[in-house]
Amino acid sequence: MTPVRVEKYVSDFSYPRNAPLHSLVDDSKLIPSLLPFWDGPKEKWFITGSTGDAWEVGDIEKLQDELKNANIIKATKIRLWAVQIPLPAVPPLVLAVVPIAGSTTAVKLFRMEKELLDCLLPRRFNIISLASDGASVEREAR
């Protein structure tokens, strides 16, 4: 759970829980592709690379047919959210990484970020800034 990870992060650096934290977000381009992977503990094949959750493959022998019939949108970007203690030599803590499409709207990005902040703010983390690199969709989402 994200708040527990942030609590550990500030504790690991002996940083006061109510002291200022920065919130960071950035998008990185991806080469759109779908990749199968085997989940050993679940004993199932999954497909990653779409804008949603990993897609469970019903029958690996029929994968090509399943892909043709599936309504999958390949991710063209990955969005990363992090928090950082504003002190030198303290690395940021990645909170979430989500595959997104280039057409993802500012409203949808805002909702994702709000969901993260709604987890942190009630726990009294002192988020003092929301930083992004200035891409137009990122500015619109804030």
Q: Work out the strand percent.
A: 25-35%
CA-to-CA gap between the ends? 24 Å
Q: Using only CA atoms, what is the Rg?
A: 18 Å
**Number of domain modules:** 2
Which secondary-structure class do the elements indicate?
alpha+beta
- Residue stretches low in confidence (pLDDT < 50, at least 5 long) are none
The average pLDDT value, as a whole number, equals 86
- The spatial strand order of the largest sheet comes to 6-5-1-7
How would you characterize this protein structure?
- The protein has 142 residues and is of the alpha+beta class.
- It has two domains: 2-30 and 75-141, no CATH class; 35-69, no CATH class.
- Helices cover 27% and strands 31% of the residues.
- The protein is built from four helices and seven strands.
- Strands 6-5-1-7 form a four-stranded mixed sheet, covered by helices on one side. Strands 2-3-4 form a three-stranded antiparallel sheet, with no helix packed on it.
- A hairpin with a 4-residue loop joins β2 (35-39) and β3 (44-48).
